[in-house]
Amino acid sequence: MVVAETSRSSERSLDIDRAKGAPYIAAMTTLVLIRHGQASFGSDNYDQLSDLGHRQSRITGEHLAGLGRLPDVMISGELERQKDTAIGAQGQWDGHDADLEIADAFNEYDADGLFKAYLPAALREDAELAEAGQRLFQDRRLFQRAFSRIVRAWLSEEPHDAGDVEGWSAFRGRVQDGLERLRSNYDRDARIALFTSGGPIAVAVGEALGLSPSATIELNWVLFNASITELRSTKTGWRLMGFNNVTHLELVGEPGLVTSR
User: Fold this and answer.
1) How many CA atoms lie within 13 A of 14 on its CB side?
2) What is the pLDDT of residues 213-256, one digit of tens each?
3) 42, 138 contact by CB (below 8 A)
4) Angle at the Cα of 73 (from 45 to 57), degrees rounded to 5?
5) pTM, two decimal places
6) Residues 6+ apart with CB under 8 A from 239
7) CATH topology of domain 12-107+189-250
8) Which of 50, 67, 125, 150 is deepest in the core (most CB within 10 A)?
9) CB-based contacts of 197: which residues, under 8 Å, 6+ apart?
């Protein structure tokens, strides 16, 4: 991988050499998780950024450049909305040409598969959802109501007849494995920008805080588009340093620039 050289101050923590009783400096990997910009809800292809999503990506890139905190490593999941957010952000970094690595560990869960698996039961249990028909996929309130029911069934690993749909435990394990590779495959003081989706970010934060599955998925519901969450490595995992930051969008001062879906 080719990574452009960039000036950075290494993030470090003070630790103790127990054998010598003397302090030493331990380098920490910084992981900046960036949720994709607004996708195309209600369209034939959700997996593409809206015009607003592209703008959110550019503003995020400008913000990171302004802070002087550009990454040594750029990683994205395979989804178009994830990759295009990374490309939009990097387009604001003059002379900083770190290669974009693609890692399927950070793909979002298969929402279409979950709907096929668990929507029939949700419709049987909720008359308003059953009456909504196709409006369910255009009305954000109804969609979220249905999706919350579907995800609860997914977390419980309830049986279904939809075939090979990635279960919660498999999804969580996939993201965990990806996070562990980030800790082991890069320099200890690397700054990694990971462009991904709400599900993987929720798992990463849930692991750092030791949350239950239900508490972990609740984080997913509150994540903003193009938000910034930051973790730093420890000897055994990750420590949460910041969550769901959209100050860079709020400072623009335009209503509607901060979105969740």
Assistant:
1) 3
2) 999 999 999 999 999 999 999 988 999 999 999 999 999 999 89
3) yes
4) 40
5) 0.86
6) 208, 231, 232, 233
7) Rossmann fold (3.40.50)
8) 150
9) 35, 36, 77, 79, 81, 82, 106, 107, 108
